[in-house]
Design brief:
The chain is of the alpha+beta class. Helices cover 25% and strands 23% of the residues. Among the domains are: 3-177, Sandwich (Immunoglobulin-like); 685-754. The termini are far apart.
Length: 754
């Protein structure tokens, strides 16, 4: 940190990190903190120009974005305030010390037992244009990997004054608190998880059935029945365990190898709270190392702030299991936030040390655990807890997931389909899975109830087909998702962002709570309500930002800066790509393992605007880039590959689907550089919605004669205004809204491409 960025007195210190970010410290003993903390990892920012005014009363710090006033003495409402150089509202341009700030929220530790909504903690994003990150009392993170108690008793605050520049605020937040790591490629596929007493035979049979039915999986989650649960009564609960249940898994190494041969990575569930007890396989090694009284069966009590216990825990318990084939751990800490000695929150310590240990033993680290507060984004992935199986729970999760990005937490993994209680509803299971496919991590999960199965074939043939197809699409998206994964790390842009990051001055963006950006190319609006009884269609209100938007699956187009209700059948999901979007997909998702780079790529090119997409791929620490550039003005498509370490499959082919050209045009390439002329390609001038209209009316439960009249209106009346008047005289409610969507789509195409 440049010394000129620091303004310091006997008991106060201000550090200008950026023109919008100021650290504000008060400590009556002058005991200021320069070490890393649980939350803060870096304070080395580039020099920022600012003006400083000082007199006998106090100081003023003036940057291009804000004006800070401080009167000497302890921080109080009368001694410290900051005025924003922005007119975001008529009454809310000043923060006074002690004010509660209404942020756009962040996230929370867990959704355990939540049925629907829950309160969220604050994030760093607010419509008022400013927020506070409080690091007072945070434990210090020492260079030797230990945590130390913060001896300062004062205040250590970070003022974020980024107005509505939400992406810049988030990027600087990551610079301050540490980047999101790149998660392993395999984590981006489909996960199978269930609380169920599987045996080696039944589990492998299940995995092979997924393969036979061409439903790709990438991660096998073995819940707590992998270990002994029936233990001698004197040891208490069987919730904590580290010894294989040999009745279920007689040869664990063989079992894990077979999973690896199927292309699956494996994680085991652990509840560490009860430590290592005398019935465990590792007890002899642990007792010798920690000098336990074996004759009294003295347990190794869980205490992650004790270095000796922690090192023995990894060396003698976890590493031998990893040597057998366990890839990472699901840390299911549920026993409160107190450890056996004074120290950092045990959940935080578990996440920190487990992630660090896994990172040291693998190319990329990974854990599955609960959120432990600001800074937790450095230890992915988050397990959101045991949710209730209801529509209300599903309806909350898109908002919950997107909003977490306001505190930088980007890799949530939900129990897709819900975990427990609730009720059986086939449509709910399908809609939840559709959201899961377009969420950060798609981990199907359920409780031990015999009736709560999530296998696609546990449902009707229609639902099985829809589930299988959408899971295949998730696997196909891995090239796109991995690129967004790298973007998250390199540029501080999470995979999922609320819509107001796209247009922060548009009120409609804030109203679209369940809609979100899904990477750089897509927006998603999951259907989280039961189908309408009359139309037999699911419905969601969608806000389309400025531009033209294609439905990813049907190709129907919508005009931007519009808010309207969208209707879809059960096997359809509202996902939209903007004109110019370029989406790289694995062309053979049922063949490619999640750990492999695909041999064939299918590029979906949504015509209408110029754009460029840089596909990022890694292997053994080396990186390759494949750039596809669409120049719509010059009607040119270019492919260029940069692969200095030759990690891309040598016989890879590229297929380009030109969407919006009336019919899909496929162009194939096996070369590292190609230019394709699009001069003969034009946007389709109109769209025939008659087939879609018939499908929707055919399943609607309304009068037959009314169906015929509606068909006639669409055939006879092409003028949008007159057609609208005719429809208003015939129908109302959801049926009217459903028909207006189709009328709008047809009208938009004719007006914009005719």
């Amino acid at each position: 940190m440049e010394k000129t960025q620091v303004i310091k007195g006997k008991d106060y210190r201000f550090t200008v990190l950026t023109d919008s970010l100021i650290r504000m410290e008060y400590e009556k003993n002058g005991n200021f903190i320069d070490e890393k903390t649980q939350i803060i990892q870096n304070r080395q920012f580039s020099s920022t120009n600012f003006d400083l005014l000082e007199d006998e009363m106090g100081i003023q710090i003036i940057t291009s974005q804000l004006h800070l006033y401080y009167k000497y003495g302890e921080f109080s409402p009368s001694s410290l305030f900051v005025e924003m150089k922005a007119n975001l509202s008529d009454y809310n341009n000043r923060w006074t010390y002690g004010d509660e700030i209404e942020t756009l929220k962040g996230t929370t530790q867990t959704l355990d037992g939540i049925d629907g909504k829950t309160e969220l903690e604050d994030g760093i994003i607010s419509r008022g244009g400013f927020s506070i990150l409080d690091d007072s009392g945070s434990y210090l993170q020492l260079e030797n990997g230990e945590f130390a108690e913060n001896q300062s008793t004062g205040k250590d605050l970070y003022f974020f004054g980024y107005r509505h520049e939400y992406r810049r605020a988030l990027k600087d937040y990551y610079k301050l608190t540490g980047a999101v790591p790149i998660i392993p490629r395999y984590a981006l596929g489909n996960w199978w998880s269930r609380f169920w007493p599987y045996t080696e035979e039944t589990y492998l049979e299940l995995m092979n059935k997924f393969k036979k039915k061409k439903v790709p999986l990438s991660v096998s989650v073995i819940d707590m029945d992998w270990h002994k649960r029936e233990i001698p009564e004197r040891f208490g609960s069987g919730w904590t365990g580290y010894s294989w249940n040999r009745e279920f898994f007689p040869k664990p190494e063989r079992f894990l190898k077979k999973l690896h041969d199927l292309g699956l990575k494996t994680t085991l569930n652990v509840h560490p709270a009860d430590g290592i007890r005398a019935f465990e396989d590792a007890y002899e090694r642990i007792s010798s190392r920690l000098k336990l009284n074996v004759s009294l069966e003295e347990p190794a009590l869980f205490d992650f702030n004790n270095k000796d216990f922690r090192e023995a825990y990894f060396d003698e318990v976890h590493h031998p299991l990893e040597d057998e084939g366990v890839d990472f751990w699901w840390i299911d800490w549920q026993q409160g936030n107190q450890s056996n000695s004074t120290g950092v929150d045990p959940l935080w310590a578990l996440n920190f040390y487990h992630y660090l240990d896994n990172q040291e033993r693998n190319e990329a680290g990974l854990i599955l655990s609960r959120y432990a507060g600001a800074g937790s984004h450095r230890y992915p992935i988050g397990f959101s807890g045991d949710t209730i199986v209801t529509w209300e729970s599903l309806d909350f999760q898109p908002y919950f997931t997107a909003t977490a990005s306001n505190i930088g937490y980007s890799w949530w993994s939900h129990d897709i389909g819900g975990h427990m209680k609730g009720y059986s509803d086939e449509e709910l299971s399908l809609r939840w899975l559709q959201f899961g496919v377009f969420s950060p991590i798609n981990r199907l999960h359920s409780s031990a109830s015999s009736f709560n199965s999530k296998e696609p074939w546990a449902f009707s043939l229609e639902t099985e087909k829809a589930m299988s197809q959408i899971m295949q699409f998730r696997h196909a998206m891995i090239p796109y998702l991995y690129t967004m994964n790298v973007r998250n790390h390199d540029d501080g842009i999470p995979l999922i962002l609320p819509m107001y990051y796209l247009d922060s001055e548009n009120e409609k963006a804030y109203e679209a709570k369940n809609e979100y950006q899904f990477g750089s190319e897509l927006i998603v609006s999951p259907i989280t309500q039961h189908t309408n009884h009359q139309t037999k269609l699911g419905c969601v209100e969608v806000w389309f930002p400025t531009g033209s938007w294609y439905d990813l699956f049907s190709g129907m187009t919508y005009e931007g800066n519009t808010k309207m209700k969208i209707y879809r059948r059960k096997d359809e999901m509202p996902v939209f790509a903007k004109s110019g979007a370029i989406l790289p997909l694995d062309a053979t998702p049922t063949v490619t393992k999640a750990t492999q780079l695909p041999l064939h790529l299918n590029w979906k090119i949504f015509l209408g605007k110029s754009n460029q997409f840089k596909l990022i791929e890694d292997s053994n620490g080396h990186r390759a880039e494949t750039v596809v550039c669409l120049d719509w003005e010059k009607k040119q498509l270019k492919l260029e590959i940069f692969d200095p370490y030759h990690i891309i499959p040598s016989k890879r082919t590229h297929i380009f689907e030109l969407i919006g050209s009336g019919s899909t045009v496929e162009m194939k390439s096996e070369n590292s550089f190609n230019e394709f002329s699009l001069k003969n390609i034009t946007l389709d001038k109109k769209v025939d919605i008659s087939a879609e209209l018939f499908k929707r009316l055919n399943q609607a439960e309304i009068d037959y004669q009314l169906k015929e009249k509606i068909i006639e209106v669409f055939k006879q009346e092409k003028n949008y205004g007159k057609r609208l008047n005719e429809l208003l005289s015939l129908v109302s409610g959801d049926l009217l809204e459903m028909l207006l969507e189709l009328a709008y789509v047809e009208n938009f195409k004719e007006e914009n491409h005719g």
